[in-house]
Amino acid sequence: MQWLVGVDEAGRGPLAGPVAVGVVAVPKGFNIKRAFPGVGDSKQLSEALREEIYAEALLRARAGDIRLCVRYSSALYIDTRGIVPAVCRGVWSGVRSVALPRNSFIKLDGLLAAPPEYRQETIIKGDALEPVISLASIVAKVRRDRLMRAYAKKYPAYAFDVHKGYGTQKHRQAIGELGLCAIHRQTFCKVDLWGKTGV
Predict the structure, then answer these.
(1) Is it the case that residue 197 has pLDDT exceeding 50?
(2) What are the tens digits of pLDDT across the range 1-25?
(3) In terms of Cα–Cα distance, which of 24, 12, 11 is closest to 84?
(4) Tally of CB atoms within 10 A around 150
(5) Mean pLDDT, rounded, for 189-194
(6) CA atoms within 13 A on the CB side of 48
């Protein structure tokens, strides 16, 4: 069977938490818009709709209709290797984990690239233009957001459940007052000697 695959990441720019890469594979001819009404760029959808689409994706994956996975690279990995290698690691690991035949075709958002043994196309703003990439972006964002809500329970003072690690004013203020916690990307958080963020 030939598969069409979508790949996108969530969390490239935050000051804290991992970057997540979503990979979704559907059989050739699968009608994504019919199966997942409202599918689109995850950043433009409400949280409720993203969760609804993700729940349906899980059901279809368990039934064997589609395949999906999410791969993370931690803040420590990002600090050690850099954000680009961290995303690349997630893409390659995710694509290979869904056990695709070599005749599959992969569509990736932005500047992402899949392992070279696969036929592929990188599409600027693909998360808004290609439903299979949109679905991958939703899967990645929902899973990452859930993880950041879990981190919020461990580090409540940073309100990760609200901003998901992005550099909001409230988040920057918390860093200035408390310093960094274990899931902050130190290379993304330049802090001066007086505890005020310089990011």
Answers:
(1) no
(2) 889 999 999 999 999 999 999 999 9
(3) 12
(4) 11
(5) 55
(6) 0
The one-letter amino acid code at 134 reads: S
Query: Which helix or strand (DSSP H or E) is residue 12 part of?
Result: none
Q: Model-level pTM?
A: 0.93
Architecture of domain 3-152 in this structure: 2-Layer Sandwich (3.30)
Q: What secondary structure does DSSP assign to 164-186, as a single string?
A: TT---HHHHHHHHHH---TTB-G
Residue 30 neighbours by CB under 8 Å, 6+ apart: 4, 65, 66
Take residue 190 and report the two structure tokens written for it.
Answer: 């330049």
SS3 labels along 39-99: CCCHHHCCHHHHHHHHHHHHHHHHCCCCEEEEEEECHHHHHHHCHHHHHHHHHHHHHHHCC
Determine how many CB atoms are found less than 10 A away from the CB of residue 18. Answer: 26
- Specify the pairing of strand 105-109 against strand 3-10: parallel
Predicted confidence (pLDDT) per residue in 66-85, tens digit: 999 999 999 999 999 999 99
Query: Tokens at residue 177, please?
Result: 């007052």
Three-state secondary-structure class, residue 110:
coil
Cβ-Cβ contacts under 8 Å for 97 (sequence gap 6 or more): 23, 69, 71
d(CA 134, CA 8): 8
φ and ψ at residue 109, rounded to 5 degrees: -85, 150
